[in-house]
Amino acid sequence: MRNRNKNFISFLLLTFLCYNSYSQSDLLKDIIQSVSIDSIRKTIIDLQNFQTRYEYSPQQDSAGVYIFNRLNSAGLNVEFEEYAIGQAGFSCFDFLTPSHLWIGGTSGALVYSVDSGENWEYLNTQTSNAINDIEFYNRFIGWIVGSGGLIKKTSDRGNTWVQQNSGTAISLYGISFISSSIGLIVGGNGKILRTTNGGTNWESIISGTNENLYDVQFLNQNNAWAVGNNGKILFSSNSGLSWEFQTPPANSISEYRKVYFIDSLKGWIIVSGNFILKTTDGGKIWERIELNAIYGSDYRGITFSDSLTGFLVEASGNILKTTNGGDSWFHQYLYKGWTVRLNNIISLPNNKLLICGSNGYLLLSSNGGETWFNRTHTLPSQLIHKTNNIVAQLRGTIKPDNEFIFVAHYDSYSYNYETSAPGADDNASGTAAVIEAARILKNYEFESTINFLLVSGEEFGMFGSTFHAFNARANKRNIQCAINADMIGYPIGHIQPRLIVGSYKTYNSMIDSILTYNQKHNLNIFLEPVIDNSGASDYGPFALAGYNALHIAEGTPEEIWGGANPFYHTPMDLYEKLSPNLLLKATQLLTSSIAELAKPLRKLYVEEPLSIIEYKLYQNYPNPFNSETNISFNIPEESYVILKIYDVLGRDLFTLINQNLKPGKYSTHLNLYEFQRYLTPLPSSGVYFYRLEAKSVSNKFYSESKKFLILK
């Protein structure tokens, strides 16, 4: 009986509302009033009941499925966005034409590619020592050197390895062979080793220094260079039998990390500092080339694709380029994050470049460094941990390429993280706000697209948001702003409800918009604008990727880390410790802000799907009309639906609906004056068409068109 009454009232409400136009202010008021603390509480408690959502735990995977199902049940188009976290850091390459490539790193990690880095094979080196350098003389014969005096040789491209005797436990950093027999190794404390029989025996050579030597390169049968700490440049003209020191430029003493020659005359030395060294006469004179200090001073790798075009990588994520042979360098790209440390770069055929770094970072460019894609997920399964972000999209109908992102992380941490990290505040509260916003906003149509993004890996160092933000940049997505919700439930400070609104490094004008929305909608939240230098949440990667990004939280990072929330990262981070009023107000602010930015156009009304068995498009009413009418249609099963308006010539005038819909009877209101910003002039009197297209989850297709008449 109660259900029948509810359905009848719903039908009457639908019949009444669908013929009335609502202003944007009315829509936003309706959105704010729809936020439910009961719904928020349920989500937080459901998430905390997983006990822990720490990365690597099965509970986190289960929580991800729960979030996916919640967003999917709301009728949104939801996807898992898989990415990978590396289990080893990489620092050294070797490449043999046309396409053979090896990469080595920590814990004996070594991988091999036969297609220039598109796919990788795991090679078992049977060592846990760090691999510091790789040298392959041909595609079968090669060596690795590393910590603890490690030297190993392979004769089958790396499938099996034979230990060679270095005679030392000192770390070895660089290796170079000029033939299958003659090779050099450099290492700590000025160590230089030389072989003339492919490494069967290694002879210790006097270097004349106790400084660490980090790299060595044979240029030809006789000439070789080695570089190291405290400005050491060593040169040999007799295949490494003896060495002499070369003089660096004045005021250029530093840690010299790599030596790189492209021919008998031109070479470079990578330096720990905001400069590099260059020679054009085979090392007789080294010239200091200044680099802009704002791009860091921890340069790790250099490569040239031709005599003029070269690239430098700096550890914190800066990529520099030269087009004049290294005389000057400009900043080309930034790939930066809390866990990003770039260690080396190599030039490959067909305009490709590959960068390796910490945490298994592999960045591949196929257009000469213009864009970079994360390729960590292509590494062998032994070396990566795969995890998921969850993305739900509400596609805009007028400017669908304009995106606004509402982001929160769903993983959790505590000092007992493996078994008890309920994370009600950090960050089930932010996750619940995103899910609540999705539940409400899916009933509205917006000018621009809204993406609801739940990320993993935040507690590890913003892995999920870093992947998403920089992948978006590489794909040239037009993200207007990302709003991050992280810890929005525990009251900090004397004035309540209080939240901070932060941006990274500099003041973002979007903060002013949030302050305005708070006042405009009478939310009465005490909002404190802050400039945050830590970037210690998921807005940070979006800001680093060049997007507008805001952080909304209960307190500043300094307050949180300083103990203002005593339950932070503890097993006592439970819903009962949170303020329902603060949660409600924060979610209202976040939901209305993302809605206001994306610009709501109209509310989409739906009757409960009692007996809808087929698709159907109804004739609009009223028809003819002057400026406003209503269009209804039936959806018998979950479908992706597009509803568009065309003129008699078949030209697409505008889109009314472009989103995933659950089964039901829908009605949308068309007000021509809503589109006057986009249509100049507005449609004149005459015949027009509206067309419904639907594709169901079971791959059924439906389309139908009807015409209406506008009378001015």
How is this structure best described in words?
The two termini are 47 Å apart. The chain contains 11 helices and 46 strands. The protein has 3 domains: 35-85 and 384-601, Aminopeptidase (3-Layer(aba) Sandwich), CATH 3.40.630; 90-246, Methylamine Dehydrogenase, Chain H (7 Propeller); 607-710, Immunoglobulin-like (Sandwich). The protein is elongated and about 95 Å long. The chain is α+β, with helices and mostly antiparallel strands. Helix 2 runs antiparallel to helix 11, helix 3 crosses helix 5 and helix 8 (510-520) packs across helix 11.
User: Count of helices?
Assistant: 11
- Rg is 31 Å
Number of domains: 3
Distance between the termini: 47 Å
Strand order of the largest sheet: 1-30-33-31-34-37-35-36
Number of strands: 46
Mean pLDDT: 92
Query: DSSP strand (E) fraction?
Result: 35-45%
Helical fraction equals 10-25%
- Helix/strand-derived category reads alpha+beta
CATH fold assignment of the largest domain: Aminopeptidase
